[in-house]
Amino acid sequence: MAVPSTERVDRYPSSVALHRRRVRATVEAAAISELARRALRSDGFVVVHRNPRTLSVDELSIEISDIAPGLLLGVVGEVHELDGIVIDIGESHVGAIAVDEPEDRGVVWIPGDMHAIWKRFRDSLLRLAAAGYPGCVGCAGPAAEVPWDEEASRRRFR
């Protein structure tokens, strides 16, 4: 019979604190991935922010086309005095990285540190584009195969 190791206990004194962080990161990751998939399925999107240059919005289209030359995606920054970052596709808001929860339940809402979440959103966009999304089968993971439930996502954030 194997003897339990005490090393784990010494190394991880608070599993509750670790658990909370992991759950939050997982909820954010799911919403970030959904927003990235929506953006990549479009012909392009607008990033609305106080200063889109700080987000390197202008370079994003080039980065995506360098990774996936067949994916033509226009990304434009628009200046607006909003608290947060809004992603628009066409005439619709599809994402909000902001403290305040949008009323529209069709908008993917991701509260938290907007610059950290924006970085994760960019990374997710680039990873999915490199994998061949939206033209690939299964490259976006199992969550991409089921309809997004924004209400459930928001309940987990609250």
Descriptive terms for the model:
158 residues; alpha/beta; five-stranded mixed sheet; 5 helices; 5 strands; 16% strand
How would you summarize this macromolecular structure in one to three sentences?
The protein has 158 residues and is an alpha/beta fold. It has helices at 7-11, 15-41, 57-67, 114-131, 150-157; strands at residues 44-49, 74-79, 85-89, 92-97, 108-110.
How would you describe what is shown here?
- This protein is 44% helix and 16% strand.
- By secondary structure, the protein is α/β, with parallel strands linked by helices.
- The chain is built from five helices and five strands; from the N terminus they run ααβαββββαα.
- The model is unreliable at 4-23 (pLDDT under 50).
- A five-stranded mixed beta sheet has the order 2-1-3-4-5.
- It has one domain (16-157).
- The relative contact order is 0.17.
- β3 and β4 form a beta hairpin.
- The radius of gyration is 18 Å and the shape is globular.
- α2 (15-41) packs antiparallel against α5 (150-157).
Provide the residue-averaged pLDDT: 84
The stretches of 5 or more residues where confidence is low (pLDDT under 50) are 4-23
The helix-strand sequence is HHEHEEEEHH
- Tell me the fraction of residues in β-strands, as a range: 15-25%
Main pleated-sheet profile: 5 strands, mixed
Radius of gyration computed on alpha carbons: 18 Å
The rough form would be described as globular
> What percentage of residues falls in helices of 4 or more residues?
40-55%
- Determine the number of helices (DSSP H or I, runs of at least 4 residues): 5
Structural class of the helix and strand makeup?
A: alpha/beta
What distance separates the N and C termini? 45 Å
The number of domains:
1
The strand order across the widest sheet is 2-1-3-4-5
State the assembly state of the protein chains. single chain
